[in-house]
């Protein structure tokens, strides 16, 4: 069995596993919908995933006007 999980650290939290990155619509007058999901090893840098996420959303012509990173 191949094990890809890595140890991750973010601020004061440490875990072994993966990161899940989501893109969600946030219009006040519409339902909130998940538009993109990407699972990565914890060793991948968040800003690299955001660039890929934006590329995929742009291809589908649903790139947001504003980003909120948590």
**Total beta-strand segments:** 3
Helix content: 10-25%
- Beta-strand percentage? 35-45%
- What's the alpha carbon Rg, rounded to whole Å? 14 Å
pLDDT < 50 stretches: none
Distance between the termini: 33 Å
Number of continuous helical runs = 1
> Looking at the structure, what is the overall shape?
elongated
The largest sheet is:
3 strands, antiparallel
In what order do the strands lie side by side in the largest sheet?
1-2-3
What is the mean predicted local confidence, pLDDT?
77
Q: Assign the structural class, choosing from mainly alpha, mainly beta, alpha/beta, alpha+beta, or little secondary structure.
A: alpha+beta
Secondary-structure element order, as H and E? EEEH
Task: Using brief descriptors, characterize the structure shown.
70 residues, single chain, three-stranded antiparallel β-sheet, 3 strands, alpha+beta
If you had to describe this structure to a student in words, what would you say it looks like?
There is one protein chain. It contains 1 helix and 3 strands. It is of the alpha+beta class. The chain has a domain at 36-62. Strands 1-2-3 form a 3-stranded antiparallel beta sheet, covered by helices on one side. Strand 1 (6-10) and strand 2 (13-24) form a beta hairpin. The chain is elongated and about 40 Å long. The mean pLDDT is 77.
